[in-house]
Amino acid sequence: MKKKTSLSRRNFLRGTGQVMIALPFLESIPSIAMGQSGAQKRYVLMYYGSCNGGTKLTLPSSYGPLNQPFLPSLASLESMRSKVSLVSSLNLPQHYSGNVPPPGEATGAQHGKMESPLLSGVRSVPKTATNYDNRYSFVRGTTSDQIAAQFLGAGSKFDSLQIRTQAVDYNGRTNPNQAISVVKNGSILNELRPIISPLELYEKIFSGGSSSPSQPPVSQLPLKKKSVLDLVLDDAQRIENSVTGQDKERLQLHFENIRKMERNLASANTGSSGGGSTSGSCGSAPSNPGPDPSISDYGFGGWADETTRGNNQADLVAYALQCGLTNVASWAITYSQCWINSAKTGNSTKASNPNSSKPDIHADSHHSSADIRAANHNWAVQFFNRLITNLDGMSEGSGSVLDNTFVVFVTAEGASAHNRSQLSYLYSGCPDKVNLGQHINGNNNYPQRLLISGLNAIGMNTNTLGETTGKIAGVLK
Q1: Tell me, what DSSP letter sits at residue 331?
Q2: Which H or E run includes 396?
Q3: What is the model's pTM?
Q4: Which residues contact 200 (CB under 8 A, 6 or more apart)?
Q5: 85 with 428: CB under 8 angstroms?
Q6: CB of 412 within 8 A of CB of 52?
Q7: Distance of CA 126 to CAs 105, 186, 190, Å?
Q8: How far are the Cα atoms of 233, 287, 461 from residue 261, in angstroms, in the given order?
Q9: pLDDT digits (tens, 9 = 90+) for 257-306
Q10: What would the pLDDT profile of 333-386 be if each residue is shown by its tens digit?
Q11: How far is CA 329 from the centre of its chain?
């Protein structure tokens, strides 16, 4: 049997202007993920910093198969009902005494202290604790997505992607905190800042960056009549000649998508792709999203067309996962205290914030009716739906990319503001490992145990996340 040619999984850098072009995943590139075998696995964490519409507008009447239409909090998922599962009755204890809480639990706070145990399994701490470092401590351990990235290997173009949909925090500041993806090295917490701009994400995926810090991004490079591929034609031809079969097809499709990117930039195309329709091994590239939607107001109730931003991000993340540009993504749809204009997300009309005349998601979580909270939650769920729909429509082997991707959707609150005892989370993908189309009783478990189950779904043999151990019964087969 002829030995496959081994290629570097990193980018190749050639040509005038020092252009770097990303390669798609090729079968001839050895997998270096620890313990992996078979199809490439992937992991996506999605986070929404508010609540759902409460039990009556969120949860089915019984546990078991999801054989009834989804209620308003989850209505956008209806077409994918058989491909998702809902885990409810999750609980994260909070401690208001001012003492350090037990492992895996949260100090009592209105916002921001839920995320550390939820995302990293490591307890949050009050400001009075001796080990608190006098700054806002959002996440205090390595998050599940970064554990997944370490397991799945560094062979892809990006070890992981981090994105956020909410443009700014809309409280009059541009707070850079609240990275939901963190790596802890010793006592040092390294927060991986999210990409907020869909255009920046597009350029990152397709351009691969530059070997020189002074090199401008793609959007600022002078557009020339010759394709960037023409500048590196010899190298492209050499790589194509070194592979056969599906690898050759993937390369040809990916190079054509690079050409499409250049045509989009040249024509200043501002449309977004519809998502889900693909052809060939690497699929059709999403359209250039164009300039980011403008921020209408930095104050409470601000808006920067986060709906369009999120749709573009869902399409770009799906493409990056399908093409092997990354195997891991974390996606913060909002901040932990979300002042996005809820007239745009849930048709809210009541402005309950004394500092603004506009309604917002955070004020709704306190003061609006359950149907408004449900609509806001469903607005966030639509991005989960768009991503998994995209992945489900992308062929891979005898199935789809979704079949090899664990996607989990978590929230900061349960049925209302500051509620941590009625948490209901969603997951999809990896049908060979997890039960889908089910409403699962979380039995008052820590919510982060669902993430431990997700790590097992991608092939890890672990029972631990940070200080937390255990999995959710009924999730794994």
Answers
A1: E
A2: strand 395-396
A3: 0.79
A4: 217
A5: yes
A6: no
A7: 12, 21, 20
A8: 17, 7, 40
A9: 666 655 554 443 333 333 333 333 677 889 999 999 999 888 899 999 99
A10: 999 888 999 999 999 998 888 888 999 989 888 888 999 999 999 999 999 999
A11: 5
